[in-house]
Amino acid sequence: MITINYDETASTPQKLSAEEIAHPDQVIEDFFDYANLQQVRGYLWEIFKTMITCSYPGLKRREMANLVYFYEQVEKLMEAIHVMHDQKNAGEER
Predict the structure, then answer these.
(1) Is the residue at 13 inside a domain?
(2) Exposure string (b/e) for 38-60, b if CB count within 10 Å is 16 or more?
(3) What tens digit of pLDDT does each residue of 1-29 get?
(4) For the chain, which terminus, N or C, has the lower number of CB atoms within 10 Å?
């Protein structure tokens, strides 16, 4: 497995706005408004195939742009889930 060393800022949200940090559940809503579960699976599969084959067979420019946008949305989704997890854990420590 690849090990990557990150600095401390990597464990804090970088892509979320202050509003999104305050309401991470809205990020989840926005994510699934953008793509339903079937589309999410399709995007993930295309990203995986492209990464493994190191090629972009048959992907048009717009499709590549959509995959980049999807990646950015997944990043925000992960940060929102991280914020929710931290909030839950902070509540349990009280």
Answers:
(1) no
(2) eebeebeebeeeeeeeeeeeeee
(3) 677 777 777 788 999 999 999 999 999 99
(4) N
The range of the structural domain enclosing residue 67 comes to: 18-89
Q: Is 2 within the bounds of a domain? A: no
Note whether residue 81 is domain-resident: yes
**Other CB atoms closer than 10 Å to residue 80's CB: what's the count?**
24
Q: What is the pLDDT of residues 21-57, one digit of tens each?
A: 999 999 999 999 999 989 999 989 888 888 878 777 6
Which region holds residue 36: left if phi is over 0, alpha if psi is between -120 and 50, else beta? beta
Of all helices (H) and strands (E), which one includes residue 60?
A: none
Tally Cβ neighbours within 10 Å of residue 64: 13
Question: Per the domain annotation, does 32 fall within a domain?
Answer: yes
